[in-house]
Amino acid sequence: MNRVVITGMGIYSCIGKNLEEVKNSLYEGKSGIKIDEERIPFGYRSPLTGMVERPNLKNDLSRRQRVSLGEEGEYAFVATLEALKNAKIDQDYIDANEVGIIYGNDSTAQSVIESIDTIREKKDTTLVGSGAIFKGMNSTVTMNLSTIFKLTGVNFTISAACASGSHAIGMAYQLIKSGLQECVICGGAQEINKLAMGSFDGLGVFSSNLEHPEQASKPFDISRDGLVPSGGGATLILESYDSAIKRGAHILGEIIGYGFSSNGEHISTPNVEGPSKAMLKAIKQANINPSDIAYVNAHATSTPVGDANEAKAIVNVFGENGPYVSSTKSMTGHECWMAGASEVIYSMLMMQHDFIAPNINLTQPDEAASKLNLVSKTIDKKFDVFLSNSFGFGGTNSALIIKK
Amino acid sequence: MDKEVIIEKINDFLIDEFEVEPDDIAPEANLKDTLELDSLDFVDLVVAVESNFGVKLVGEDFVNVKTLQDFYNLIENKLS
Q1: From CA A1, how far away is CA A209, in angstroms rounded?
Q2: Predicted complex ipTM
Q3: Which of B19, B43, B58 sits opposite A130 (nearest CB)?
Q4: How far apart are CA A367 and CA A392, in angstroms?
Q5: pLDDT of B7 strictly over 90
Q6: Catalytic site residue A186?
Q7: What residues of A are in contact with residue B60 (Cβ under 8 Å)?
Q8: What is the pLDDT of residues A122-143, one digit of tens each?
Q9: Which end of chain B has less Cβ packing within 10 Å, N or C?
Q10: Collapsing DSSP states into helix, strand and coil, what is residue A391?
């Protein structure tokens, strides 16, 4: 079995458009949540969202490449450019070696809706243009990035709701660990637009704290009133240890455990057993004790039932007052398909720079969360091992353990 | 529509939307080779023609279109 290491990272999120900006926001406990005015007349219950501007890629990509790339693909492209640069992997290396891609994505709502609107209006499918099909498929990110970067290894998309990004890293880890791949680009992307999140808003699970958008996302707090949707792109470069050593890469961390499970119960209400099982599987695979884990980046989205059940699961696995716990969604909102990848990057940045980012907006934990060692203010602390949780609709769970 | 206007409109969207180099624009230029338009670009040409001239082209319209001049003629005939 190969050891699997992380040699590059790239991020484009509502708390920063690159690693440096994001690291600073995490340290400062800065929120990226805003109000999207367009959502109110559109019919949303809550117009709160993480916001990041669409990148201008005219100088980076040809017209042919751009017309096939939707919003989530643009975010993934920018994050991947940074990750490859961070890993010191250039096109010559990619041309000479088999590099693959596995990315988490679970919607292309805007691309699909806009092209169907065009067909309805024009009554002619040709008039949607040549890029519509490539923007509208769920595999749009891997489809586009594999051709842009001329990748010749594994190439597919993971759709697993809000655990998509985490499972993408987990699958890339498994392929490298088993020797089937040497280097895989992986991550998660999430579109941010009013067409993508309407049906989620319709469930009534979004926060409506419009007076203080930056305080709307408050995971584990007793007064939380729902999550805030968000998005962007997050990319990691995973390699076998041997591959990284051979090319003299700087090793940022090592993935040592990937646990997964399915709740087998309700489509949207999470339980305690499934997440507990995923964490325990990851810990067993990592061959460490729970007490070796210094920090847990919680999935906690700021919904009453979800946060409480995760808190119980963490106590199940680690006992009361175990590792430091925070949910970075308090700053970023819920980055959905991207979250599992971005939150590994957030945790990696903390581990690299010796701090634990806060669970902002935490005034009073609820009963279940009061048994956790929650971090409400930034802590300066060196640590070597963290666990990142990601859960999704349908009861899909993923837990990743990474060490320095 | 005046022939010069048709040519100007076509040249404009080839340069602006299809990012064809202005220096490559010439009546004898081959659409596929010189202008580097591939099969997918021809779909987008149909879209551009519809939005600029209100004319819907189909695949058969391009059978005898090799050069930019052929393309100008096609649109002129469609509009006449």
Answers
A1: 49
A2: 0.90
A3: B43
A4: 23
A5: yes
A6: no
A7: none
A8: 999 999 999 999 999 999 999 9
A9: C
A10: strand
